[in-house]
Write a structure and sequence with these properties.
globular, 36% helix, 169 residues
Length: 169
C-alpha cells in the first residue's frame, strides 16, 4: 500500500474509532479506571484521591472518553477561575493514542470553555511530547512560558501553552 493509500486508510480507521467514543461527565465510579489509566500514561501519575477530590469542586470539569463497551479510554480535567481555565490533565489510554481520542477531549474542553465565558485557556506539556504539541498547535495553542524541571519522571521542562478563547460565538 502506498503512502497516500495508507494515510487514507488511517484516516478512515481514526474516524471509525472517534465515532464510537462518547464524551461524558466523570463519576466517582469511574475513578479507579481513571487512576489505572493515569498510571499507565504518565511517569508522575495523580493518585485516585486527587480525581475524587476534583469531582467535588464546582471549579473542576472532569470528562471521560468512553468506548462502546463502557471502558474509559481517556479523560480531561479542566479547572476554571474567573475568566481563565487550565487543562490540568488530559490522558488517552496508550493503546488508543493517535486515534482521535485526545483531540475529541481537547475539542470538548475548548467548547466548554467558550460556553463558560473563558477568555484564555492554558496547559502544560512536556517539551519532548511532539504529538501532543502538534495537537495543541492545531487548536491554536501557543507557547507563552516554560517551567524548568516541571516533570520529574523523567526530569523534563514543561512548555506553558495558551489559547485565546472567544467569550461568545
Amino acid at each position: 500500500m502506498g503512502g497516500v493509500a495508507r494515510s487514507i486508510a488511517a484516516g478512515r480507521r481514526r474516524r471509525m474509532i472517534e465515532s464510537r467514543i462518547t464524551i461524558r461527565s466523570t463519576t466517582a465510579d469511574d475513578v479507579p479506571a481513571m487512576a489505572e489509566l493515569e498510571a499507565r500514561a504518565f511517569g508522575d501519575p495523580w493518585p485516585a484521591a486527587s480525581f475524587l477530590d476534583l469531582l467535588r469542586h464546582p471549579f473542576a470539569r472532569v470528562q471521560s472518553a468512553v468506548d462502546e463497551s463502557g471502558r474509559i479510554v481517556g479523560y480531561c480535567v479542566m479547572l476554571r477561575a474567573a475568566d481563565e481555565a487550565e487543562i490540568a490533565n488530559i490522558a488517552t489510554d496508550p493503546g488508543m493514542r493517535r486515534r482521535g481520542v485526545g483531540a475529541r477531549l481537547l475539542d470538548d474542553a475548548i467548547e466548554a470553555s467558550e460556553s463558560l465565558g473563558v477568555l484564555a485557556l492554558f496547559l502544560e506539556v512536556r517539551e519532548a511530547n511532539v504529538a501532543a504539541r502538534a495537537l495543541y498547535a492545531s487548536r491554536a495553542f501557543h507557547a507563552v512560558g516554560r517551567r524548568r524541571a516541571y516533570y520529574k519522571n523523567p526530569l523534563e521542562d514543561a512548555l506553558v501553552l495558551r489559547r485565546d478563547v472567544p467569550a461568545f460565538k
